[in-house]
Amino acid sequence: QQQVKQSPQSLIVQKGGISIINCAYENTAFDYFPWYQQFPGKGPALLIAIRPDVSEKKEGRFTISFNKSAKQFSLHIMDSQPGDSATYFCAASIANNFNKFYFGSGTKLNVKP
Amino acid sequence: DVKVTQSSRYLVKRTGEKVFLECVQDMDHENMFWYRQDPGLGLRLIYFSYDVKMKEKGDIPEGYSVSREKKERFSLILESASTNQTSMYLCASSWEGNYGYTFGSGTRLTVV
Fold first, then answer.
1. Mutate which of B98, B99, B102 to test chain A, going by most A C-beta atoms within 10 A?
2. How far apart are CA B23 and CA A8, in angstroms?
3. N or C: chain B end with fewer CB closer than 10 Å?
4. Is the pLDDT at B2 greater than 70, yes or no?
5. Residue A111 falls within a domain, yes or no?
6. Which domains does chain B have, with CATH numbers?
7. What is the pLDDT of residues B44-103, one digit of tens each?
8. Which of A2, A6, A93 sits opposite B98 (nearest CB)?
9. What are the strands of the beta sheet with A56-59, ordered from one edge?
10. What is the pLDDT of residues A80-94, one digit of tens each?
């Protein structure tokens, strides 16, 4: 049973458009929610992360929106670029639990020029 | 920059072979992890270690074991490789506490 559910599985966006990837969780003990970006042939790399005491975090063109009551969080990529084409994973972890993360199933983003 | 180095990018092994995947990190991280990545399933935790000689099972430990004799090195062992263990294997490390992982580039293992 997957603890973090991610959608969509794949996404095609035109250059300059907004990419939106959604994740949902059930375990209310989760208290740290990162997003990872993975390019082909590489390991995932931390992109941006949020804790549940804030509803939004923005870093450049990347924004996490967090809805604690709905147990959902999403990644928004503004002004999407072909260089953003990658696989994105959401994840969640519980404090004081050896830093174990539970990952979503991944979203393959293709930004068309 | 923190580096997590996995010894092989690609491996092809035969069914029944004993397989060792090696991972080394250079930032004195306490925690180390082994995940496998399969399409549509995301990353699933196999084993992790929070200290030298300490190990804990993850979500899919069956058919695997691990070894951590030194803080910087974490090995994944497939005792008797099977075709359903064909996958991308990712090693990661982190400090204690809620910080993001640093991943290695992965080892794509094919068992024939």
1. B98
2. 32
3. N
4. no
5. no
6. 4-96+106-111 (2.60.40.10)
7. 999 999 999 899 999 999 999 999 999 999 999 999 999 999 999 999 998 876 567 899
8. A93
9. A4-7, A19-25, A72-77, A62-67, A56-59
10. 999 999 999 999 988
